[in-house]
Amino acid sequence: MTTLLKNTLGKDPQLSPLSLWKHFSAICAIPHPSGHEQGIIDYATNLASGLGLKISKDHVGNLFITKPPTNGNEDGDIIMLQCHMDMVPQANANKKHNFTTDPIIPIIDNGWIRADETTLGADNGIAVAAVFALLEDRTIQHGPLRVLLTVEEESRMHGALELKTDFFDADIMINLDSENIDEIYIACAGAVGTTASLDLTFEHISPDEYNFHTLAIKGLEGGHSGVDIILHRGNAIKILGTALAELQKCNKINLIDCNGGSLWNAIPRESSANFAIKRSADIECEFRKINQKLKNDYAKTDPDLQITFKAAPQVSEVMNKACTEKIINAINTCPNGFFKMSDDLPDVVETSSNLGVMSISDGKIILKSMQRSLIDKERDIIQHKIISAMHSTGFNTHSGTSFPGWIPKSHSPIVEKSKKVYTALFKKIPKIMAIHAGLECGIIGKKHPQMEMISIGPTMKFPHSPKEKVNIKSVEQFWNLLLAMIDE
Ligand SMILES: [Zn+2]
Questions:
Q1: Shortest CA distance to 86 belongs to which of 49, 129, 42, 33?
Q2: What are the angstrom distances between the C-alpha of 213 and each of 236, 275, 277, 359?
Q3: What distance lies between CA 367 and its chain's CA centroid?
Q4: Which stretch of DSSP H or E encloses residue 75?
């Protein structure tokens, strides 16, 4: 049974605390995709001013709110609660939804809340609603309290990157953007993007002397380039590179075009290349061998891998052999996958890279990769390796904005306190975790290096997709954990 409710979550008796759900309901009604946070900014500003709380806004729209300590709690550490105001706008293909004007419709569904074929924005709207409820509540005991709300986290970490050091102050930051109530995060990976490019050089051929083929890779599992990199799943661009290099060993080919992947931060699932080869070459037999070998290599991680080989349209202009060779070498020499596990945290990847996109435009081929590490130095070392590999094959490179990682401090006072509070509250021990992906903690922590941090959040599934849902019970647990953490 599902109940379709138009923003009445704040009145539904099965939801607790109602104060939090009331604000979440209001947040759903205010469009707030990345870059369009003004409605939430106005809502927060009205709320804080109405409560007589000091609120400031910086040049990009980040908000900082101060709530004075309750009586007798003046001497405690300054605790800052931090979350982002924007959401990822995704709707099912058949759903008409304008994220800058239409409200999100929350639906109660078997212990979870989801939206009507769109992202819900529980990431990070539940956290925003929780801090609003906290600011409003005059019965909760706490020390000096701060709230930092950022803009454009989902699209480009813009709010966090633009934060000025003197805009906020805190001894402890509790980031509210993780996605499992059983886990407390104490580290995240930083990242940097690397773009490699090569000007293509073409030559004319007599089409009658050549055969033309398309080689396509499909059916890979893909996944998040950070979180899923440990699974050793096939990368469609790398697999294409392997297949082309094998073909190249026996008979030199001339590439016509090639492409693969579409996002920096996703493991590419599909790729393809068109090429020409002299008529005399027996390539079918070669292809069958390659196909068999690659299918065996990826049988465990990507059982649905398909490698297809078929005739392509004739052309009279192809990339010359030197250019073809450079591209195949670049794909194959580019270091990729996971390189090192964390020394401090069991089962957590420390450093990785994902070759995410291969595309051709304006006479250039472009290879985009993203390097991640918990440790900034390691992120830079792997980026330098990739840059060297690309230069050695004749490509130029360009480095994008880098995001710092958040280094684990397994026994910091706030980590110890959170474990104690959590265990007392839920009668079980939380999992202490690091995520091999970006959280704003890495960036914000660099601005106040002495600040201790943890990250917590209610349980969510499928964030950033129209299947996004948040577990109702975990929201109440999250609220209780939050209150316990700020109670000195
Ligand atoms: Zn988030």
A1: 33
A2: 18, 6, 8, 18
A3: 19
A4: none
Is there a catalytic annotation at residue 476? no
Long-range CB contacts (within 8 A, 24+) of 39-48: 40/85, 40/128, 40/149, 41/85, 41/151, 44/85, 44/128, 44/132, 44/149, 47/132, 47/135, 47/136, 48/135
For 112-151, how does the pLDDT look when each residue is reduced to its tens digit (9 = 90+)? Answer: 999 999 999 999 999 999 999 999 999 999 999 999 999 9
Task: Give residue 28 CA to ligand 1 midpoint distance, Å.
Answer: 15
Domains and CATH numbers, the chain: 2-189+406-486 (3.40.630.10), 191-403 (3.30.70.360)
Q: Which of 37, 86, 152, 452 is catalytic?
A: 86
Instruction: Tell me how far the alpha carbon of residue 176 lies from the centroid of ligand 1, in angstroms.
Output: 8
Q: Which residues contact 270 (CB under 8 A, 6 or more apart)?
A: 216, 217, 218, 220, 236, 260, 261
Report DSSP letters for 109-151, one per residue: ETTEEEESSB---HHHHHHHHHHHHHHH-SS---SSEEEEEES
Distance of CA 125 to the CA centre of its chain: 17
Asked about 86 being catalytic, the answer comes back as: yes
Catalytic residue among 37, 123, 152, 153: 153
Amino acid, res. 189: A
Indicate the pTM of the whole model.
0.83
3-state DSSP helix/strand/coil % of the chain, to nearest 5: 30, 30, 40
How many other CB atoms are found less than 10 A from the CB of residue 389? 18
d(CA 226, ligand 1 centre) in Å: 15
Per-residue pLDDT tens over the stretch 209-268: 999 999 999 999 888 888 889 999 999 999 999 999 999 988 889 999 999 998 888 899
| Strands of the 112-115 sheet, one edge to the other | 2-4, 106-109, 112-115, 469-471, 460-461
